[in-house]
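dumping this here so i dont lose it
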């Protein structure tokens, strides 16, 4: 409750400072979580897929073939 009150006070005085404080808090939580993070250039157009990475089919065993 105290943190919420302080954030409300900061937001009243300077919304830009509040935005920055929240971004820092989110970054700290992300770093503490141990989650993997991939950085993508801002000018890059990508399709983001949430969830588990799809499993790739097994690689063929080339040694077993008669060439």
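and the seq i came up w/
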């Amino acid at each position: 409750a105290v943190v919420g009150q302080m954030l409300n006070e900061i937001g009243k005085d300077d919304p830009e400072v509040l935005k920055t404080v929240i971004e820092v808090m989110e970054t700290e939580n992300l770093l503490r979580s141990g989650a993997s993070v991939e950085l993508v250039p801002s000018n890059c157009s990508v399709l983001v897929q949430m969830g588990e990475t799809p499993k790739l089919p097994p690689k063929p065993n080339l040694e077993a073939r008669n060439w």
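The helical segments are 2-13, 15-33.
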